[in-house]
TrEMBL record:
Residues 88-97 have a biased composition (Low complexity). The lineage of its organism: Eukaryota, Metazoa, Ecdysozoa, Arthropoda, Crustacea. The keyword Cell cycle does not apply. This is Aminopeptidase N. It comes from Petrolisthes manimaculis. Residues 698-1000 form the ERAP1-like C-terminal domain. Binds 1 zinc ion per subunit. Pfam families: ERAP1_C, Peptidase_M1, Peptidase_M1_N. It is found in: Cell membrane; Membrane.
């Protein structure tokens, strides 16, 4: 799965400085209460259909029935919450949309047998006190319940080990054009691993009828198709763990097989998880509804009762009902379509039984979406689906998809195992893409690309997401982690090999160079916080550590093992464990076998020995290289790199790593050897490396930054590197120039190198013409920008940046060509974006002129796709209501996801507080025309705007509960975007009190909130330690914070620029 705001997919929104974003990849599990309430109303309001559920003949909802039945509601809430549910959960009515489904009638008298619960969610983070290295010691305070550690709670959430699901039959009839309920039936056959009197499986937001639950023993009197029924003594619903438990009269016997069946009613929710509803407006302006799924990590249980853990693989026979004017898609091809008895205008699509797979990879789409077929693959049906009007935008995905699939088949030396692959872009989707086996689902920007309208970055994004999800067909789908703590095996691999797939298709993108800045450097800052987490970490949700650090350490392995060894080890791992589950040790074992076979590791060293230090510990080392007195040897030491040292830290773990050392010096200047010359063991505090060039020659460690560590040098070596960059920077490999910039700036940020040393080093940038070093510089300047925005130093800083970027801006120019090399297009976008940020008159003039020309002829937009976000943003920033309204109108009109995306971000660039306040209100009201999934994009663009930031923060504080109810899973992203530039004590206090007031509501992972707090504490600390230091450096170079006390004409002229 790939989150929408993953850092690697920089799309240059908001033209100023909106680039790096943290990933967010999974859905939070909020709002179950509200859904539960809504469902009671929905079902009752439509005639209590549960009695009519029968495997093959579901009635159409047009006939109401009102018979009494016993309903067991999964999430009966408190009375006062019910009013909220109806006002916040259903689609908001508006003059823009066609009439919503009939509102639910008054709630029925409670007939539930399950106890009331205030929350059906696994409240993983209530009252989290402290996160340790692995989270093991951390205690969880629960309200009135016993204390549980994070690990204990994660264990407590697991299903009992007594049953193993073998096969499911799932029948679902989603009433897309009705009241959004789902009529369902499930049968699941299990094998008993340990005798038990409980039959426990997952269920959430589902209404069952206890009378329909049947448990039959298999193999008994099967000829008559009856079996022997096991009597259920009591039905229990455990809301916290989302369990249904059938308490049985007799014990199920080990080795025997049983089948549980039940009828149920679910809901096509509007929360973009489980089986959910989505809509769009077609070419005729008609609102069209469809249904899609998103099950990772644990939302399959919202679609049907199941054993919803990744390790519990089974086969699935899926039946989906549809109206005849729609289509259904699932993981496998359709076996047959049959008329629905008693369902006029309805049919059932019966699907072929799946291969053994995990529940979170199942998927269903029921829609009127259109599709195109590829003819590139002989034996695999490959199709792309999207809104009919957007179908041409799917051509790129249709072109590259089959080629990437073929590439991975070859790379992993293992065939794609299913007979077909569908890729679907749905109008509402909570992530960029999701790798459901044989049915990959994307958001529109994750798959669609319109030549001439979308930018080069949009194209790269679509390419990378497609490559990522197709890599998952092997890593994740075919071989699946045993539990979520090993999810890095999925995400780390997909996030690494997606680059190999794209490099094969689009070699001109230099994507392997881009990896270093987007993935490795992109995660370094987060991983230098105390609130980081190890790659192997027991939580339901992935984060950037799991994705980007995971990918970075896999790349490191690829280099220290060598390509041949790495590939054969990976291929053995996949083919040995196909259709099964794995843990990291399985991968280490296969890679070690390959390494010993090939002689790339000594026989007394295993991959596990090395990699345990990178996966079980959080953080990473800074390797310090100091020249010895003899002049041609160096002493190398390692210690954990932290941005801020905590004097009173309770973390006593001795952080040491197995470090592959590669290096070169000025005399040799050979950057090609990326297999280690020396291993630094985790037991070694320091080592000496002899035979380097003499003292007046520089040394560089970590060639091409293939290993996951930073390098610090003695000041003499830093000065030698700076001199080299100034005299002839290309003597140092491109990636290593980016590495030196990023290391120097972050070491300065952490207090290990003087800022003067780091900023002096950036002085060569006016000569730099490569994208990757510039990116590293911009990312680090962005941090300074965030720290200085509300200080007296902001003006001098902007003038400094303008001088730095001006030569690049002049060289790249504004004349954009879509057939230029992609990295040149990116470079131009960056140069223009930063030049306009500094207020360069030429840049602003061109931006306004281009925008105004578009306003003159609204149906002909000549602004080049790459510069749209910058042009839109600055035109709206400089303009007023008229410019804003024009852009808003264009947003409503546009049929292209990427264009809508650009406009939504740019609309947050206004400098008018009242416009921004109005925009914030619109973001959390779907009737405004802004989709729920885009709320965080809108909020983020306002929060990153220096005028909007205080407004966004106040809005968030004032409307926390409303935002939480509207889109709980967006909260983390909103909080991150608005706190990025917090660096004052008062802001820290406000954040702390918000955290205290809303414990557990921002994210289900307690580390997310701890990270935000730690970042702000770091910013406060940085301001105290380094603000004056940076100001002094600027002052020394003529960028003054103070104004002259006497008027001189030349000053006013200069200030005007
Ligand atoms: Zn993924």
């Amino acid at each position: 799965m790939l989150g929408e705001v993953d850092k690697q997919h920089e799309r240059g929104h908001n033209s100023t400085l909106s680039f790096g974003k943290a990933p967010c990849c999974y859905l939070s599990r909020e709002a179950g209460v509200l859904l539960g309430v809504l469902m009671i109303g929905v079902v009752v309001g439509t005639g209590l259909l549960v009695h009519y559920l029968a495997p093959h003949t579901y009635p159409n909802l047009s006939t109401p029935h009102s018979q009494h039945f016993d309903v067991d509601v999964f999430a009966p809430p408190r009375q006062e919450k019910r009013a909220d549910a109806r006002t916040t959960s259903k689609p908001l009515s508006s003059h823009h949309s066609s009439p919503p489904p009939p509102p639910p009638p008054p709630l029925p008298p409670s007939t539930t047998s399950s106890p009331p619960s205030t929350s059906p969610q696994p409240d993983v983070m209530k009252g989290q006190k402290k996160e340790s290295l692995s989270g093991i010691e951390q205690k969880t305070e629960t309200e009135g319940k016993e204390e549980m550690t994070h690990e204990e709670r994660m264990e407590w959430l697991r299903l009992p080990l007594s049953l193993k699901p073998l096969h499911y039959l799932v029948k679902l009839q989603p009433l897309i054009n009705g009241n959004f309920s789902i009529l369902g039936y499930v049968e699941v056959e299990v094998e008993v691993l340990e005798a038990t009197t409980n039959f426990t499986l997952h269920i959430a937001d589902i209404i069952t009828n206890n009378n329909t639950v049947k448990l039959m023993e298999s193999g008994v009197e099967e000829e008559e198709g009856l079996g022997r029924e096991v009597v259920i003594r009591r039905h229990q619903y455990d809301h916290q763990r989302e369990f249904y438990i059938a308490h049985l009269e007799e014990a199920l016997q080990k080795g025997n097989k049983y089948t549980l069946s039940m009828e149920f009613t679910g809901l096509l929710n509007d929360q973009l998880h489980g089986f959910y509803r989505s809509n769009y407006r077609n070419a005729n302006g008609t609102e069209v509804w469809l249904a899609s799924t998103q099950f990772q990590a644990n939302d399959a249980r919202r679609a049907f009762p199941c054993f919803d853990e990744p390790g519990l693989k089974a086969t699935f026979e899926i039946h989906l009902a549809r109206q005849t004017n729609m289509t259904t898609i699932s993981n496998m091809p359709i076996k047959e379509t049959i008329h629905m008895v008693g369902g006029e205008g309805w049919v059932w699509d019966h699907y072929h039984t799946t291969v053994p797979m995990s529940t979170y990879l199942l998927a269903f789409v029921v829609s009127d979406l259109a599709h195109n077929n590829s003819t590139d693959l002989d034996d695999i049906l490959f199709r792309v689906w999207t809104r009919e009007e957007a179908l041409p935008q799917a051509n790129y995905a249709l072109d590259i998809g089959p080629r990437i699939l073929t590439f991975f088949t070859d790379y992993f030396n293992l065939s794609y195992p299913l007979p077909k692959l569908d890729m679907v872009a749905v109008p509402d989707f909570p992530a960029l893409g999701m790798e459901n086996w044989g049915l990959v689902i994307y958001s529109e920007i994750g798959m669609l690309y319109e030549a001439g309208v979308s930018s080069a970055a949009n194209k790269q994004l679509a390419g990378m997401v497609v490559s990522h999800e197709l890599a998952h067909q092997w890593f994740g789908d075919l071989v699946t982690p045993k539990w979520w703590s090993e999810i890095w095996l999925n995400e780390g691999f997909a996030s690494y090999v997606e680059h190999l797939g794209i490099d094969h298709i689009e070699p001109s993108w230099n994507i392997l160079e881009q990896f270093v800045i987007r993935r490795l450097q992109g995660v370094f800052v987060k991983d230098s916080l105390h609130s980081s987490n190890p790659v192997i970490y027991n939580a339901m949700n992935g984060n950037t550590i799991i994705y980007s650090k995971g990918a970075s350490i896999i790349r490191m392995m690829n280099h220290f093992l060598g390509d041949g060894t790495f590939r054969s080890g990976v291929s053995d791992y996949l083919s040995t464990l196909k259709y099964d589950n794995a843990v990291s040790d399985d991968l280490w074992e296969h890679l070690t076998l390959a390494a010993h076979r090939d002689g790339t590791l000594p026989t007394n060293l295993t991959v596990k020995t090395i990699m345990d230090t990178w996966t079980l510990q959080m953080g990473y080392p800074v390797i310090t290289v100091k020249r010895n007195n003899d002049g041609n040897s160096v002493t190398v030491t390692q210690e954990r790199f932290l941005l801020t040292r905590q004097e009173n830290s309770e973390d006593t773990h001795d952080y040491k790593w197995w470090v592959p050392l590669t290096y070169t010096d000025q005399a040799e200047a050979d950057f090609s050897q990326t297999q280690p010359k020396v291993w630094m063991k985790d037991s070694e505090a320091q080592i000496t490396i002899p035979h380097l060039a003499t003292k007046d020659h520089w040394v560089i460690f970590n060639l091409h930054q293939t290993a996951y560590y930073r390098v610090n040098y003695d000041l003499h070596n830093w000065h030698l590197l700076t001199s080299q960059l100034l005299s002839q920077h290309t003597a140092i490999a491109t990636i290593n120039r980016a590495q030196i910039i990023d290391d120097a700036m972050d070491l300065a940020r952490g207090g290990l190198v003087p800022y003067a040393t780091a900023l002096d080093l950036l002085g060569y940038l006016p000569q730099e013409r490569d994208y990757v070093p510039w990116w590293a510089a911009f990312e680090n300047l962005k941090f300074l920008k965030n720290m200085l925005t509300y200080t007296a130093g902001y003006g001098p800083f902007k003038r400094y940046v303008r001088d730095l970027v001006l030569p690049l801006y002049s060289t790249m120019g504004l004349d954009d060509h879509l057939d230029d090399p992609v990295l040149d297009q990116y470079m131009r976008q960056k140069a223009v974006s930063w030049a306009c940020f500094t207020g360069l008159p030429d840049c602003l003039h061109h931006a306004l002129a281009a925008f105004n020309a578009w306003r003159e002829t609204p149906h002909r937009n000549n602004i080049t796709a790459n510069l749209k976000s910058t042009v839109y943003c600055h035109a709206i920033a400089e303009g007023g209501e008229e410019e804003w309204r024009f852009a808003w109108h264009q947003y409503l009109e546009s049929n292209v996801g990427t264009e809508k995306d650009n406009l939504l971000s740019a609309l947050g660039c206004s400098k008018k507080p009242w416009i921004l306040s109005r925009y914030l209100e619109m973001a959390f009201n779907e009737s405004s025309g802004i989709k729920k999934q885009d709320a965080r994009r809108v909020f983020g663009s306002v929060a990153r705007n220096e005028v909007g930031q205080p407004l966004a923060w106040t809005f968030l504080q004032d409307n926390f509960d409303r935002i939480h109810a509207y889109s709980a899973n967006a909260l983390k992203g909103l909080m991150k975007s608005v706190t990025t530039s917090f660096n004052r004590e008062t802001q820290l206090k406000e954040l702390e009190s918000l955290h205290a007031a809303h414990k557990g509501q921002v994210s289900s992972n307690p580390l997310d909130m701890m990270e935000m707090l730690e970042r702000v504490r770091h910013n406060v600390d940085w301001t105290q330690r380094h603000y004056q230091e940076v100001m002094a450096w600027l002052q020394n170079r003529g960028y003054h914070t103070t104004l002259p006390t006497h008027h001189r004409p030349s000053d006013s002229q200069r200030a005007h620029g």
